[in-house]
């Protein structure tokens, strides 16, 4: 049976939901339908916190109330084919939807490494399905020894959260020399490594899992160096790959990207089909090369661009690449990163100057709850334009990295940051005489003359 819909969105994660709601604001007379392939979706960034911080893991569900309140229809089904000529999407349940505009927000799937034994019971990839995740939490809490493979953001957050569970031994294996090595320079990675180890977790760096041992169920792992470890649960926190099968089968182009190729307005090679979120290709803010950054913040920004511009280009896109802005929270330590690190900038061949500062996030520092804060800024030596920044400290660091992110997007100069006007308060910020973003810019300025 064929059903007509003006705007069809495939996927109900953050990108799909925001795109549909944005489209409703800009095109109030259009009929909008969202297809979701799991009955109970989840808040992706909240998955690690289902183990301890959330009293009830089910509180991490991503509901569709906001869609329904915006008069957007939702169906649980799976899109399996796109007929671009007839503008029809066919579904697993045998329905067909005739669309005017189609948005692919199909998300991503966890990377499953080619390790012998990876299919054993007790090995848990992280699928964004609440029914699956609730079972994972129940089973892992019964374990004695848990190994997390992958030392990026999700792996680190899992290690932090699961370490809070009494009687559970936690191990974290990373192939790179440091945790969070793709997003932070060494001095920041060392901070998080110390916090994870203080939690009681054992961190293995420069370590690759060669085999998962056991019969039907995992009972250990063997590393490439020949050492083995007794393990009864394994969490795969290696990363994700874009879901592009539906798009490629329809002849949509990936070009040199792993995600679906899109222009600045999230249009694919078919101007009636848009792609947003993890399934869409990403380009680096500085080099315009493809990048594998997958973040809910990036996805929702793309979704707002697409939702506004489905029928006409109403909103001109200013930010034409991803600045890879991250933040995380580990055992009370907040870390944030945006743009290029010192390591990645040098690897790309940029000539840079670096500014650093450390101080307190309240004034005077004896106030309750004061935390030490560390800021590092990376500037182009020739132009003085901000290219990247990193922050560590207390809760305030989470918003300071957003200030840095905005400055990167707007190509703010070192002199503009040095003369930044800010609101300050003893309980809320560093002293106006010692504001860390300003001091880091001044430190860099001193090296440029």
Write the layout of secondary structure elements.
Elements: E1 2-10, H1 14-26, E2 32-36, E3 41-42, E4 61-62, H2 65-69, E5 73-76, E6 79-83, E7 88-91, E8 96-104, E9 108-110, E10 123-125, H3 130-141, E11 145-149, H4 153-162, E12 169-173, H5 186-198, E13 202-204, E14 209-214, E15 218-223, E16 228-230, E17 233-236, E18 240-242, H6 245-249, E19 273-275, E20 282-283, E21 290-291, H7 296-308, E22 326-330, E23 333-339, H8 342-348, E24 352-360, E25 372-380, E26 386-393, H9 397-409, H10 414-418, H11 436-448
Explained architecture:
The protein has helices at 14-26, 65-69, 130-141, 153-162, 186-198, 245-249, 296-308, 342-348, 397-409, 414-418, 436-448; strands spanning 2-10, 32-36, 41-42, 61-62, 73-76, 79-83, 88-91, 96-104, 108-110, 123-125, 145-149, 169-173, 202-204, 209-214, 218-223, 228-230, 233-236, 240-242, 273-275, 282-283, 290-291, 326-330, 333-339, 352-360, 372-380, 386-393. With 449 residues, the chain is an alpha/beta fold. The protein has three domains: 2-37 and 77-109 and 241-308, FAD/NAD(P)-binding domain; 112-238, FAD/NAD(P)-binding domain; 333-448, 2-Layer Sandwich (Enolase-like, domain 1), CATH 3.30.390.30. Strands 1, 2, 5, 6, 7, 8 and 19 form a seven-stranded mixed beta sheet that branches. The protein has a five-stranded parallel beta sheet with strand order 10-17-11-12-13. A five-stranded antiparallel beta sheet has the order 22-23-26-25-24, sandwiched between helices. α1 packs parallel to α7. The longest helix is centred in the first third of the chain and has 13 residues, at 14-26. The protein is globular. The chain starts with a strand and ends with a helix. 43% of the residues are buried.
